[in-house]
Amino acid sequence: MGKKISFGHISRREFIGNAAAGSLFIAAGPVSGLFSIDNQKSEGWPKDAPKYRFHMIGHGHIDPVWLWSWAEGVAVVHSTFRSALDRMNETPDFTFTTSSAQFFQWIADNDPAMLSEIRKRVEEGRWDLVGGWWVEPDMNIPSGEAMVRQGLYGQLTFERLLGADQLLQQIPILLDILYSAANH
After folding, report:
1. What contacts 62, CB < 8 A, 6 or more positions away?
2. For the whole model, what pTM was predicted?
3. Residue 38 pLDDT > 60
């Protein structure tokens, strides 16, 4: 029996380690058949496969103060954004997306030079703003009014800090629906 994970208090390092182990397990799934006794021969790629393009876009989905302290949440946002900017410097066609205007406000407050770098990448079209929310919202508990304010404050912050609003909305964790909208 494996180690029981307690979500009452888990450090960032433990969380990342557990997430990495789980990701490795999932990623290794397709190659696990190589070690199977009844391994079947693959048919390979379809002949028209070169006609298709597969796009991978990095997305910084961060729940900054869910399992961590406030200060650690701010640090996670900063390190994630720094990593994305570093990947952009290394790889000319790397693109990144994130939501939550609150994150950009933290960067503006703590590292204005980084905000300038991000603004440049937004202008280049390599850093996409999605969601438009102040933070990625829980869609079950807030009222419709709260959701409108989330969007308004998020859009105003994107405009003020980055000179851009964004039109693409997303709800990355769609485990529920907006209760107040469904019942009115």
Report:
1. 73, 76, 77, 80, 98, 100, 103
2. 0.66
3. no
Q: What is the pLDDT of residue 79?
A: 93
Its CATH class, for the domain covering 42-182, is alpha beta
Residues of 148-158 as b/e, b for ≥16 C-beta within 10 angstroms?
Answer: eebbebbbebb
Residue 159 and residue 38: Cα distance in Å, rounded? 58
Cα 77 from chain centre: 10
29 burial level (CB within 10 Å; 0-12, 13-18, 19+): exposed
Q: How many CB atoms neighbour CB 69 within 10 A?
A: 11
Please determine, for residue 37, whether its predicted confidence score (pLDDT) is greater than 70. Answer: no
